[in-house]
Design a protein that fits this description.
Blueprint (H helix, E strand, L loop, with lengths): L10 H7 L6 H4 L4 E5 L2 E4 L4 E4 L2 H4 L8 H12 L12 H15 L6 E4 L5 H16 L4 E4 L8 H5 L4 H5 L8 E4 L7 H13 L10 E4 L2 E2 L5 E2 L2 H14 L2 E5 L23 E4 L12 E5 L18 H10 L7 H23 L6 E5 L2 E5 L5 H11 L2 E2 L2 E2 L5 E4 L7 H19 L3
Parallel strand pairs: 3-15, 5-6, 5-7, 7-10, 10-11
Antiparallel strand pairs: 1-2, 2-3, 4-12, 8-9, 11-12, 13-14, 14-17, 16-17
Helix pairs in contact: 4-11, 5-11, 9-10, 12-14, 13-14
Length: 426
C-alpha cells in the first residue's frame, strides 16, 4: 500500500486507525509537517512557536543544522546504524567526549551504562543496580514524582491514574513528602525520623530517587538546602542517591546537570530526552565505579546501540565546551521568570503561583481547568504548550534552549492574549 499523499493525511486518519491511548495529537489536533529551530508548521502551512520541545527532548531545537549534516554524512557513508553494545567508532567518540567535556571538568568519576533507548530504561537499570549493589529492595521516592511508564518506574511514580495503568500491585517502594509540599525542614526531619526511629516497619531503602525539578508532577523545584539534606541523610545511612535528570538535565535548568548548583554528587544519574541532541532515542545511566556490579548482559536491550543518536549527542556536547551556552540559558531564564511574575500580578483571576527554575518554569493556576483552557487557546493562536501537575493545573514553559528573546516574547504575547480571552468567561 502506498503512503498517502500529504493532502490526504488528516486528523481523521489518526482518529480512525490509531489507538485511543494517543494523547498529544489530542492536545495539538493538527497534522505537523515541518520544523526548524523553535518553530513547527502543519500541512496547512500554519506556523507554531514551540514551548513544548518534545516534552524536553529538543533542547537544541528542531533539525539543528550541524547535527543534521553529520547524520546525513554518516548515513551516506554506510556507517553502522544498529549495533547493540558492540564497539563502534560513534559509540567510542561519544564516550570519550562526554568524559572530556562533561564529567572531568565537574570532577565526576562515573562509569557510563547504555541501558536502552528511553528514559524509563535508564530508571529501570538504576533501580535494579541499586538493589543488586545493596542487597535491599525498597526504593524511596516523593510526592508527585514521575519516573516512567514501565512497572519498576511506575512503582516510584506518584500519579494515581498512571499507577493504576500497571494493572498489578506496585510494591517495594515508599513515598515521602517532596520539598515543596511541606517546609524543607519538615520534609528532611520526617524522612530521617522515618528511617532511623525503628518504629515504621519499613526496611532501610536501597536507594532514594528524586527529580530536582518535578516535570510532570507540576514543575516543583527542590531547594538547594533540601537536595543537600537528602544527600546527607543518604550518605549517613548508606542509602544510594539516584537523581532522575531525564527532563531537568542536559541544560534545561541552566547547568548540564540540574543538581550542580547544590554541589551534590549522586551515586547514580539517569539521562535521556535531550541527550541525543536531535530527538533520537538514547539514554544513559551514570554510576560510581564501585556500583559497576552487573555481570555482562545482566541488563541489556536490542536498541541500546543507536549510533545515529551517538553522532548527534557527540555534536551536542560542543554547546558545553565553555560557559557561554549556560550563561545564555540563565539570561533567558530570568526573562521568562520576570514575565511569569508580571503575569501573576496582572491577572489575579488566575490565583496563580510561579513554579520551577531555568527554562523549566510554569504557572500553577488556582482555578480548576484554567491552565488547560489557556493551553487550548494558545494552540489556536499558534503556540504549543502543555499542562502538568496531578490535576493539569500548571501551564508549563519548556521551549528549546536555543530560542531567542524575540521568540520567547512572541510566545508570551500569545499567552497573554489567551489568558485575557479565557478569564473573560470566568
Amino acid at each position: 500500500m502506498l503512503i498517502a499523499e500529504k493532502e490526504n493525511v488528516t486528523m481523521e486518519t489518526f482518529e480512525s486507525l490509531e489507538s485511543d491511548v494517543r494523547s498529544y495529537s489530542r492536545s495539538f489536533p493538527t497534522v505537523f509537517e515541518r520544523s526548524k529551530g523553535y518553530k513547527l508548521w502543519d500541512t496547512d502551512g500554519k506556523e507554531y512557536i514551540d514551548f513544548f520541545a518534545g516534552a524536553g527532548t529538543l533542547n537544541y531545537g528542531h533539525n539543528n543544522d550541524k547535527m543534521k549534516q553529520l547524520l546525513i554524512d554518516y548515513i551516506a557513508n554506510d556507517s553502522i546504524t544498529h549495533s547493540l553494545d558492540m564497539a563502534t567508532v560513534a559509540r567510542g567518540k561519544f564516550l570519550e567526549k562526554f568524559n572530556e567535556i562533561i564529567l572531568e571538568p565537574r570532577n565526576l568519576d562515573y562509569k557510563v551504562m547504555f541501558p536502552g533507548p528511553t528514559g524509563t530504561n535508564s530508571v529501570e537499570s538504576a533501580l535494579k543496580l541499586a538493589r543488586k549493589a545493596t542487597g535491599r529492595t525498597t526504593i524511596m521516592s516523593f510526592t508527585n514524582a514521575f519516573h516512567g511508564m514501565t512497572i519498576g518506574a511506575l512503582s516510584i511514580t506518584g500519579n494515581e491514574k498512571i499507577r493504576k495503568g500497571a494493572g498489578v500491585p506496585l510494591h517495594h517502594s515508599v513515598s515521602m513528602p517532596f520539598d515543596k509540599f511541606v517546609t524543607t525542614e519538615e520534609s528532611l526531619s520526617f524522612i530521617e525520623s522515618y528511617l532511623t526511629k525503628g518504629g515504621t516497619g519499613v526496611e532501610l531503602p536501597a536507594a532514594i530517587i528524586l527529580e530536582t525539578v518535578q516535570g510532570e508532577g507540576g514543575i516543583n523545584a527542590a531547594s538547594i538546602e533540601w537536595l543537600q539534606g537528602i544527600e546527607k541523610i543518604a550518605n549517613k545511612l548508606g542509602i544510594l542517591l539516584i537523581v532522575d535528570d531525564i527532563q531537568a538535565g542536559c541544560g534545561r535548568t541552566g547547568t548540564f546537570f540540574s543538581f550542580e548548583p547544590a554541589g551534590i554528587e549522586p551515586d547514580i544519574v539517569c539521562l535521556s530526552k535531550s541527550l541525543s541532541g536531535y530527538g533520537l532515542p538514547m539514554s544513559i545511566t551514570l554510576l560510581k565505579e564501585e556500583l559497576d556490579v552487573f555481570t555482562p548482559g545482566e541488563h541489556n536491550g536490542t536498541f541500546r546501540g543507536n549510533n545515529l543518536a551517538f553522532i548527534a549527542a557527540t555534536e551536542a556536547l560542543e554547546y558545553w565546551t565553555n560557559d557561554l551556552f549556560a550563561e545564555d540559558i540563565q539570561d533567558k531564564s530570568e526573562f521568562l521568570k520576570q514575565f511569569i511574575i508580571e503575569t501573576i500580578e496582572k491577572y489575579p483571576e488566575l490565583k496563580a503561583k510561579a513554579r520551577g527554575r531555568g527554562l523549566m518554569q510554569g504557572v500553577a493556576c488556582g482555578v480548576d481547568g484554567l491552565a488547560g483552557e489557556i493551553c487550548e487557546k494558545a494552540f489556536e493562536k499558534g503556540l504549543l504548550m502543555e499542562t502538568s501537575g496531578p490535576k493539569g493545573e500548571v501551564f508549563k514553559f519548556l521551549p528549546p534552549l536555543m530560542i531567542d528573546k524575540a521568540g520567547l516574547q512572541a510566545g508570551f504575547d500569545i499567552i497573554e492574549e489567551s489568558i485575557e480571552e479565557v478569564i473573560e468567561k470566568l
